Amino acid sequence: MPEIDTQAFLRDLHELRAIGRYRTGVHRPTYSPQDMESRRWLMQRLEECGLAPTIDGVGTVFGRHPGEGPHLLVGSHIESQNEAGWLDGALGVVAGIALARAGLPVDVCAFADEEGHFDVGFLGSRSAIGEVTEAEMDASRNRTDGTPLREAIAAAGLAGLPRMRLDSGRYRGFLEMHIEQGTVLEEAGLRLGIVTGIVAIWQWRIVIEGQQDHAGGTTMAERRDAGLAAVRLLAAIDEAFPKVCGERSTWTTGRIALDPGAPSIIPGRAEILFQFRDVSVPVLERMEATLRALIRESNRRERCKATLEAISCATPALCDPGLMGALSGAAETLCPGGWQTMPSGAGHDAQNVAKIMPAAMLFVPSIGGISHHWTEDTKEEDLALGVRVLGAAAERALA
Amino acid sequence: MPEIDTQAFLRDLHELRAIGRYRTGVHRPTYSPQDMESRRWLMQRLEECGLAPTIDGVGTVFGRHPGEGPHLLVGSHIESQNEAGWLDGALGVVAGIALARAGLPVDVCAFADEEGHFDVGFLGSRSAIGEVTEAEMDASRNRTDGTPLREAIAAAGLAGLPRMRLDSGRYRGFLEMHIEQGTVLEEAGLRLGIVTGIVAIWQWRIVIEGQQDHAGGTTMAERRDAGLAAVRLLAAIDEAFPKVCGERSTWTTGRIALDPGAPSIIPGRAEILFQFRDVSVPVLERMEATLRALIRESNRRERCKATLEAISCATPALCDPGLMGALSGAAETLCPGGWQTMPSGAGHDAQNVAKIMPAAMLFVPSIGGISHHWTEDTKEEDLALGVRVLGAAAERALA
């Protein structure tokens, strides 16, 4: 079993935490000075471990192992959400450093902008598998302040650099260690999660058109209240979805906007952002069929017209059984009975890398399930156990 | 029966429609140049009819009959909503001119800012009954552009003018003719509505506090989804209110705001603007008790905390039975079987005047129920019938 220096691993994590510190978390939005400082810090660490570091035209940092293969690719992302936690992304990158330091034949990567500060989405990992066109980059903007991606890249000193492409033939596969961002492990009293797949998000916009009217002059019978039709539809979804969902499906109404949204005006229009997630396409299709049936039923029942628009319907990324076997074997050796398999409800770079090579993920518990918030945290003994399991699994996968 | 010159009445309405014309409607926000022009136009008309016109420190135009009493007060308001209809308010004021022209002993008033461009609310009629303090005026601003009320009054040339107070002892009562702003009369095939009372609006803010979380990492069982709790509460209201409401009660959810309102974030907070209206206090109290019970039930059932805040709980203004009798007697004489009694779902200046003297309202049909929109309209024969009924009712009330 490889000797992982967990003290050096934790020291690295804390050093990285100091870059862009925000309360007990970090604020390192993509291409910010703090983000670029963290990328330079990473390149130094990779060099110290004997890897050849590069940064590419979108900011992805890559450390190439100089020796013979077979190789594994290990990593995640290094920028953070705004005023967010210290482990999301950083953990998987620093775990890669730890494996390289232990002498394992791994390349380490920190894919740019997994957090989606720019609207291209998963810029680094999608670019690295050849999915991002120049035109897509030309059109992309920062979701918060509207800065064009090209401008932000130039300001960060990355203009003109080539974009790296992953050579799938070089690798046995990709390993990404990450915090769970939920409470499944914590509530089960477990310390490790072997990810079976990354759920696909099927995101919808539901628009309901009624008739804007005066809330006093218009009787209940006369109304075509788009807001009320929206409430009834969402209540019907709330009732129907538990009967058709999978064991770990989730569904979420993130936004309900009534137009004009004034106290004494019957809403003439309602817009709903609704999504569901699962790792199984048949389950996703069952939920879609239910949603469509409920919208048809709404249109039969209500004096408002509901229409459904698919914003995105991705394919779930299933983890590689061989790599999962290596992870669960290592977990059972180092922490017998202390792990379980589970899907990832959140998206990760691994879902993109999985399109060109075997990929797998290892979760460690999130205290209180908190993430995307500066209070995000994980016990140090769980972080240390996780990186040791990742190292042992890498050794098994490379054997 | 008084001889109402309906041709002159319609001519006045069309002249006033030309001031601030917007498509087939008008745009005369309070204290705008168009609004002030319409107030000057009104003062000239009042003078021609033998009344002594004044304008007061908030812009209310008042025409005083020079002769012996008993008197009636007749009027409404003259400013419009933005880009709105030609009859809302204007009809009741021009009807007052018509009654004065016919020699009836009426004072005519156009109360300022019934439409609430300034946040003091019903500025003119509330000021005229002594309800608006100087401090309230100091604090009031335009709801659209934030201009302080004092500044707007000064810019309109009204600074320093005294505010008029109605002398309730002078009047047998107040009559306000208005468009219905609904389709009750149109659908019933009727031409006149005798208003029984002006509904009170009981306006509430419901705040639901949950826990903002990642829509992927958080299982359905773990969630404290404030948006879902809001949907369930509103669906319960939708089910319960028809069982406790009055015949003409209305209830409206004007706004649902989920925080932060992003597609992949479980809302941590929901804010709902909910109101109900009725002319009967026992009915209003029954609806309030139901709302409070549903919120208690939500707090037992959900992992989110709902709280209820009363924004305003006004008292319904009941119309005076004597004046209603005069109106219905006149209606039955001039249009047998063509009228009905009905509540007003919208607020009117009459609800304030009713606090100090008997008051009543006469409705004429709105084509398609449309108001607060430039397409607002009423058939000219209905307008003419309405003013004749108002004149005949005034004569009865003064007898």
UniProtKB/TrEMBL annotation, chains A, B:
Q: Which Pfam families match?
A: Peptidase_M20 (PF01546)
Q: Which cofactor does it need?
A: Mn(2+); Zn(2+)
Q: What is this protein called?
A: Zn-dependent hydrolase
- Which family does the record claim for this protein? Belongs to the peptidase M20 family.
Tell me the SUPFAM superfamilies matching this sequence. Answer: Bacterial exopeptidase dimerisation domain, Zn-dependent exopeptidases
Q: How does it assemble?
A: Homodimer.
Keyword Manganese part of the UniProt annotation: yes
**Single GO MF descriptor:** metal ion binding
Q: Does the keyword Hydrolase apply?
A: yes
Which organism is this protein's natural source?
Methylobacterium terricola
